[in-house]
Amino acid sequence: MKVQLKILYQLQQLEQQKASALNQKTKVNSDEVHHLWQEIRQLAQNVAANKQTLSSLETTCANQETEIAAVTKQCQQVEAKLYGGEITNIKEMEQTKDNCDKMRQDIARQENEAFASIESCEQVTGQIAADEALMQQKKRLHAEKQQLITQALAGLDSQLAAIEAEHRKLTEQVETELLNRFRDLGRKMPMPIAKVANGICGGCRRSIPTNQAALSLTIVVHCDNCGRILLAE
């Protein structure tokens, strides 16, 4: 009987190990990995949006350069006409000079706008580079943490498989009636088998009569206090 009870005690320990491993699986935290992936997605969206903005700014810059070149050429033509001696009428000369001044002012305004557009392009380009660098960094971190989680889960699954195999092996060595009694008791209380050490029940920590402990070597004896099956050393 003692051999059978020892096997049941081993089964009990295996079941505790299984519960511990399952608990560890539930505590494997994937929240940080999920949060990192959300950050990566947001950065990717930011990069895509900024690239569209940059494309639009580059188009604006090109148009501004074309317009500045056209107005500058026109201004140069008017100046050539003004100072080339083609205009002799004073009033017409004054009007032409006014037009030149307005065109120069317009060119200056457009150049300022063009410089502002170029600065915007540089800022957006810098932001894209920064976001892409940060995104790559977070992708590496995400991959590392994902690998750690995968390894942890694989280790726990391997541990659980070994526990299950050992559990099945030991279960086959226990008499059916005793195994059923053990299982029924296990549904009512945790650790249905308690070792008796120095006359003390390992389950409830109450004293066990000497004769009762001696009987547990040959028959199934329950603790009078907690009802656990006793396993005498």
Q: Indicate the radius of gyration in whole angstroms.
A: 43 Å
Regarding CATH, which class of the largest domain? Answer: Mainly Alpha
Low-confidence stretches: none
Given the helix and strand composition, which structural class is it?
mainly alpha
Number of helices: 5
Q: Oligomerization state of this entry?
A: single chain
Task: State the order of secondary-structure elements, H for helix, E for strand.
Answer: HHHHEEHE
The major β-sheet equals: 3 strands, mixed
Principal-axis shape: rod-shaped
- The neighbouring-strand order within the major sheet is 2-1-3
Percent helix: over 70%
The CATH level-2 architecture of the largest domain is identified as Orthogonal Bundle
- Mean pLDDT value: 92
Q: Assess the beta-strand content as a share of residues.
A: under 5%
Number of E-type strands = 3
Whole-number tally of structural domains: 2
Report what the structure shows.
The chain has 233 residues and is mainly alpha-helical. It has 2 domains: 28-171, Helix Hairpins; 176-232, no CATH class. The protein is built from 5 helices and 3 strands, in the order H-H-H-H-E-E-H-E. The chain has a 3-stranded mixed sheet with strand order 2-1-3. Helix 1 (2-27) packs antiparallel against helix 3. The longest helix has 82 residues, at 90-171. It is rod-shaped.
